[in-house]
C-alpha cells in the first residue's frame, strides 16, 4: 500500500488510514479494536505527554496510579455514570486458566469464577472517589489535585486508529475541592491548559466551549471542551474538562469537616485528553505526501541527507554532514543524519516527507565546495541554499517559523470554514456542500438537538465560552433562541 | 496506626506494611490484590522511570505500545511459556453489561460472550512476537530494539504492596536480532544497565548472575538477574534479562532474509523491572523512624522548616527561609519550604523523617541573627550548624555524600551477611540464625534444588557471573559439584 495512491481529495478516510500505517505511527493488532502504537508514533505521544505533564505539575498537580479493574457494583453508585459507562466494556469474570483433561486445550477454569465481575476501567471516577473517601477528612486535606496516565478500555464495534479504539492511552485528572467555585475554577483552568497545549504545541487552533446536555459527560454538571476542525471539515473533540459537582462525593460518601466544623460533601472535577490527539495532529496538518509535524512535537526536527557518487566525494560530504549534525545537536535540536548507503537520496527525501520531518538538509559535493547546504521545509516545500555559517542561528529560527506557519494555516482553514446558517436549508446546504463549523440558533432543548442529529448527522459541538447573546429562531423548530451554538459533523 | 509502634527488629513484615502506608507510598485498594500508588510513592517511581528510560534510549532503544489484551490461543504457541503464564491470570470473557429486566441490577450480558477469551497481559512476548512477524523481513530490519512501559496482571492470592500485587507497573524490553551472539550481548548489556541503575540511583548493591533452570523465565534459554539483599537477610530479585533464543520466533514464525539470501529465525531477548523496585528501595535503607531515600530519587531532596514564636520573628525567619529556598532551587535541588502554621516544627521533623527526605534545614530567630542554619542528614541523623553563606556549595555536596553513604552502608550490610556453607547443618544454621546469602556447592540438578527448597525454603538466587570454579560436594546430596552458587530465602 503506497501513501501516494490515495489523495485527501479522493478519499479522506482511506488517506488517513494509509498515512497512519505508512508513516509508522500505528497499526491494527490481531486483538479486535486494539492498536499497536509503533515507535515513531509513540515518540510523538511521549513528547505530548512531556508537555502536558509539565503543565499539570506547574498548576500544582501530582501523578498517582489507581487500579485497572473496577468492581461492577461501583458503577451503579452514580446513576447517570452507570448509563454512560457500564455498557460496552471488557468484563473479567475468571482468574485462572487450566488444561482441559480431555481435549488438552487451555480453557477457563470454571472453579475460578469471580464472586463479583471486574470491569476494565473505561474511566476512573468511581475507583478514585471510592479511594478519596479515606483520604479526605478535613478542609486541610483539600484540594486534592491528582492526575493519572493510564490505559482505558471502551469496547468499540467500529474502530479507527487513534480516533476510536477499544484500548487507548490517556491522562485523567481527578480533583477534589472544598467549594463549588474552586472546582469550577479548576475545571476552567484545565480547559485553558488544554487549549494552550493544542495551539502552541500541536499547532491546532481550538474553540473552547461547554457541551449541551446531550453531549455532557455521564455524571457531570457541566462539560467544557476544546474542539478542533479537521481538513475534511469535520470537528474533533480534543479534550474535555468536567465540573462534577458533588455527584461522586455523594455516591461514594466523601465528606470533609470545614473550618467551621460542619461536614460537607466534597466538590469534584475530572479532565482528560487521549491518544486521539494523534488523530487531531494528523488531520490538521498533513498533505498528500504525508505527515507535517509541528517542530515542537517532531521526534526528528532536522534530517541531514548526504549526497555523493564517488568514494572521494563521500569522504568530504560525510565530514561536513557530521560536523553540521554535531553543530545543530549542540543547539538542542533533534537531528538525524541518514547515512544508509543502500537507499538513494530520492527515497530518503520521500520517506522523511512521509514522516513529516520539519526540515531537511541535503549536502552534495558542490555544497562542500561552496560551504553551503540545501535546506527544504516540509510545510511549504520551499527550498533554499543556505551558507553553512548561517545554520547555527537560522535553523532554530526556521523551526519556530514552521511551528507558527502551520498553526496559522490551520487557523486560516478554520476561519474559511466557519459558517452561519439562519434556515434549515442553509444549514443542510453547508453541511452537504461545504462542511465546517456552523453557527446557528437552537431552541435549547435536548429533543431538538437529537432531531437535528438524526436529520443531518451534525451535533452541537459546543456553546462557545463568552458566547455573544443574540435573539433568534431555532433553525429546526423556529422557536425562540437566545444565542447561536456551534454545529458540525464530527469524529 | 503509627509507624513507631512497630520496630524492624520486632516484626519486619509489619514494619514494612506500616511504612509503605504511613509514608504515603501506596495502599491496598478495594479491588483484591491491586494497589493504589499514592502521589509520593508515584513521584519516586517517576524518577526511577526517567533514569531507566534515559539509559534505554542511550543504548538505542525506542518505546512503543502493544495491546493490554492477548488472545488465549497466543499462549499455547510457545510450550514452556504457556506453563509459566497461562495460569493465574485475569480472563475477559464478555464485552457488555446490561440491566437485568427483572432485578433491575447490572449484569453481564450473556449475548456478549467473546468467541475467544482475552487474557490481560501477564507479560507481552506473545503479542509482540506476533506483531514482529510482519515487521521483520530482512536483515536490514534488524535489530528491533523496543521497550514498553505498561501495567501487567498476574493473579496473586497473597499480596504485599509493591512486592507482589495482582496488577503492577513495569517496563518490558523486547528485542530481535540477526544472530545469537548479538542477542546474548544485548541480554548482558541490559543486565549491566539494571545493575548500574540499582547501584548508582537506588543505592542498592546487586549481584549479577544467571538463574538455575528452575528459576528461569518460562520460554527463556538463559535468564540473567540482579539480586539484592534486604535488611532482614532475605534476597530480592530486582530485575531480569532473558536470552530467549529462537523460541518465540519459531512459535510466531518470525524469519528474516540474511545478507546471503537465506531465511533464518530471529533471535530474541526480553528484560524487565517493575514497581517491585520500590520494595527494594524501602527494605534496603529505611530505619525505625521511616524511609531513607537516596537523594537521586528523592522527590524532595531538602526540606526547609522555619521555627518561630512571635510574629516579628516569623517575618525575619520566613524572609531567610524563602531566600535559601530560592538559592537551593537555583542549584537544581528539589526544595520544599514547609510553612504550614498549624503544625509544630517537631511534627514536621518527624513527618519528613518518615518520608525519608535526605536533608532537613531548620531556621530559627537565632539563626537569622547569626546568619546560620541547622542542617540535619536523614541517613546518619547528624546535625550541624552551617553558615548560610556555605549552603550554596555545601548542600549539593552533602546530597552526594548521602547518596554514597547509604550505598556503602547497604554494601557493608551485604558483606556482613554473605556466608559460605560446606555442610547441610551449617547451611540450615545460617538460614535459621543469621540469614543472608549463602555460597554453597550444589550438584547442578533441578531435583536437588527443589529438595533444598522444600527442606529449607531457600532457593538458588543465582550463579554469579564470572563465578570462581571450585571442585566440591553438594551440601544436600554430597555429589560432586564444580562451583558454589548463591542461596537465600527470598521475597
Shape verdict of chain A: globular
- On the 0 to 100 scale, the average pLDDT of chain A is 96
Tell me about the largest β-sheet of chain A.
12 strands, mixed
> Number of DSSP strands of chain A?
25
Strand content of chain A: 25-35%
What is the oligomeric state here? homodimer
Instruction: Kindly name the structural category of chain A.
Output: alpha+beta
Provide a count of the helices of chain A.
14
Number of domains of chain A: 3
CATH topology category name of the largest domain in chain A: BirA Bifunctional Protein, domain 2
Low-pLDDT segments of chain A:
none
| Name of the top-level CATH class of the largest domain in chain A | Alpha Beta
Describe the 3D structure.
Two copies of one chain form a homodimer. Chain A is of the alpha+beta class. Chain A has three domains: 3-67 and 130-285, BirA Bifunctional Protein, domain 2 (2-Layer Sandwich); 302-404, 3-Layer(aba) Sandwich (Rossmann fold), CATH 3.40.50.800; 418-488, C-terminal domain of ProRS (Translation Initiation Factor IF3). Chain A has helices at 12-22, 39-58, 72-75, 79-85, 125-135, 180-200, 247-251, 276-285, 311-330, 345-354, 365-370, 391-416, 424-433, 446-456; strands at residues 26-28, 35-37, 62-63, 69-71, 88-99, 106-108, 113-120, 144-153, 167-177, 207-210, 222-229, 235-245, 255-257, 263-265, 267-274, 302-306, 335-337, 359-363, 372-377, 383-387, 418-421, 437-441, 459-464, 469-473, 480-488. In chain A, strands 3, 8, 9, 10, 11, 12, 15, 21, 22, 23, 24 and 25 form a twelve-stranded mixed β-sheet that branches. The first copy, chain A, has a five-stranded mixed β-sheet with strand order 17-16-18-19-20, with helices on both faces. The longest helix of chain A is centred in the last third of the chain and has 26 residues, at 391-416. In chain A, 48% of the residues are buried. Strand 5 of chain A pairs antiparallel with strand 5 of chain B.
